Amino acid sequence: MFSDVALFLINIVFSLLGTVLLLRAWVYALRVHPFNPYSQAMFKVTDWLVMPLRRLIKAGKFWDWPSLLGGWLSALVYLLLSALVLSGSFSVLANLPMLILAAALTLLRWSLSLIFWVVLLQALMSWIQPQSPSMPLLRTITDPLLAPIRRILPDLGGLDLSPLVVLLLTQVLNMVITRLAFSLVPI
Fold this sequence. Notes:
- With about 190 residues, the protein is an all-alpha fold.
- It has helices spanning about 1-30, 35-55, 65-85, 90-130, 135-150, 160-185.
- Helix 1 crosses helix 2 and helix 5 (about 135-150) crosses helix 6.
């Protein structure tokens, strides 16, 4: 029972941290105004990790490398702690190459989950409360994902199926990547 509780808490804490770091990198890539209240909240939650990493690696023109590195480190610690709780012992050096790759796949899995939830939230908010103050930010974040699909899908009048396509694609990719990531870490 202790291991179940520990795994649950490890999963929640590190998944949320990794997701917020990925969202920070996504917002950086889209050039969302840094004084947006949502951006400010992300900065407050992640600055403790990103600011020291900025001294080691600089952010690029389009990519916030320190945030992505922080997300990858979160995934690595998540996998290490999960393996430790499940097996009771874990040889880090023997499994380090596979663990590095599994952490990258875990970060990709978290990215797909982030895309899923942001697109779902934007779709629901567009039906429930389209004039919400968060809608401009949600549209800014989701439009680069939905616009290419909208160009491919036939025009159905007022019915936009592009969020459904993104949701289905992210879930399928997430299943494939999850299986691959956990097959790399011997527990």
